[in-house]
Design a protein that fits this description.
The chain has ten helices and five strands. By secondary structure, the chain is α/β, with parallel strands linked by helices. The longest helix is centred in the C-terminal third of the chain and has 26 residues. It is globular.
């Protein structure tokens, strides 16, 4: 089983690209965010420092902190849950190759696990693209519902994710991985084509996309 990894940061287009690759090349799709609450709970139950701390915080306590502190915590959380993610990924076994995506796939974790450069890529958004897409997400107000100043909390969230994107880009440079920055200039199809080419999937289409897919 070959596994293709898309790391990066939220609201960058990772999920759209992974879904498109799954359909185009008949790949099993594993989305880390679908399991994130469970991983966080397992981390807290195991006494992992950041997972435990965040489990006991209110929205006010989470989002009104310094964005740099939030970013450092987010990076550590992905370290703490990496074993759970990789265990679930290894358990997939329907015979197909796998496309998987999530911010949890930090370049430092990928490098430590021996994932070769041709099987890993990160996608991070420009700040403007990130904010515009977060504004469109209907669940964002629910996440911030317990905050006394929602606009300030949202600004802190955006600052945190911008710092996270920078950290991922720096890790990619250090690890020798390809890092794409999505500013919205390319369509999802064009971005998917670039990722497919990086993974060496172009020309191996099995989905219902016609002869030129």
């Amino acid at each position: 089983m070959t596994v293709y990894f898309i790391g990066g940061s939220p609201c960058s287009g990772k999920s759209s690209v992974a879904q498109a690759l799954s359909e185009r090349y008949d790949l099993a799709y594993f989305k880390v965010d679908d399991h994130l609450d469970r991983y966080m709970r397992l981390g807290a139950e195991a006494g992992r420092r950041c997972c435990t701390a965040i489990a006991g915080m209110s929205p006010e306590e989470i989002w009104m902190r310094d964005p740099a502190v939030q970013c450092a915590e987010e990076l550590q959380i992905y370290e703490e849950i990496s074993g759970y993610v990789l265990k679930d990924l290894a358990a997939m076994g329907d015979g197909r190759d796998v496309i998987t995506e999530g911010a949890a796939y930090l370049p430092v974790i990928a490098r430590r696990c021996g994932i070769p450069p041709e099987r890993y890529i990160s996608v991070t958004p420009t700040r403007a693209f990130q904010i515009s897409h977060y504004r469109e997400r209907p669940w964002v107000p629910h996440v911030l519902a317990g905050c006394s100043d929602r606009e300030k909390a949202f600004a802190n969230w955006m600052d945190r994710d911008a710092l996270f994107a920078q950290a991922v880009q720096e890790q990619c440079r250090a690890a020798g991985y390809v890092s794409l920055i999505n500013g919205g200039e390319s369509s999802v199809e064009e971005l998917t084509d670039r990722v497919a080419a990086h993974f060496g999937l172009a020309g191996n289409c099995t989905g219902n996309f016609g002869e030129d897919c």
